[in-house]
Amino acid sequence: MLQRTIDKKVIQHRSIVIEQNRHVVYVAMKAIKYLATEMMALRGHTSSDGKFLHLFELLAEFDPGAAAYLQKLRNVREQDGRKKPSVNLISPLNVRRLLLEMKKQVTEHIINDVRQQGVCSVIYDGTQDESKMETQCVLLRYVETDEADVPRQLNVSLKHLQQVTLQAILCVRS
After folding, report:
1. CA dist., res. 142 & res. 63, Å (int)
2. How far apart are CA 52 and CA 57, in angstroms?
3. Whether pLDDT at 151 is above 50
4. What DSSP character marks residue 47?
5. Is the pLDDT of residue 174 over 50?
6. Residue 123 neighbours by CB under 8 Å, 6+ apart
């Protein structure tokens, strides 16, 4: 009987922690999505600096789970002499992982749209800057099916090339 009560409490506590972590990741995704939409950098010169962390703190004011997580991080840093907690959902590495997963999801969505339409155009162009550095750009133009057939143009790739050779250009295309 006692074992069942303990098991229930452990399961209940674990469920609460998981739900709080979901809130933290949700707020992090919202911050990343906004910054990516505005084409803004996520981090500053240090991991404790940057637009992502400041935006996360702002959004956490409206989400008790994210606010509690930030307070927990502050408490760990103040109590423990270390600067890093053992698990940090908004660490630069975890934010990068989240960003890469979001990129993967968007890429899959675009590929599905292009497959559904069966038609797209690829624009490949290049130019030289003042330092004689060659920059190549690959644009993909297609019609997005989720909205009212809105034409979209995306910058698929932008690369600076040290040498303009056929091999370097082919690497940009892949």
Report:
1. 37
2. 9
3. yes
4. T
5. no
6. 137, 138, 139, 140, 141
